Amino acid sequence: MIDHVGYEVADLARAGRFYDGVFHALGIRRLHDSERLIGWGVQEPTFWLTARSAPAPAYGHVAFRAVGKAAVDAAHAAGVAAGGTDDGAPGPRPQYGPRYYAGYLRDPDGLRVEVVASA
To answer: Of 39, 57, 59, 60, which is closest to residue 49 (Cα–Cα)?
Structure first.
């Protein structure tokens, strides 16, 4: 259903470092890099950041699928190490299903990032 997701960020280099850390732990790599645009994916870019041209309030939520609890834990730790903030430590989320395991972060612009394994 979704072809790609894109966010505008205040500091592209800072946000790029954050997402590089999270995505590295999930096996996702930077596939496009230019002065105003970065794209990540597995075979083609599906998650994009662009440099914001005007101030805007931070709003947004995106969930990235991980393969297992260890990958959720690693991506959460990498995100915090790369300048994000914890917004919910990795753990079970039974309200979303009996096998739902997720961790939540805020990226450097305050956007909410979820890393989830539900197997």
So the answer is: 39
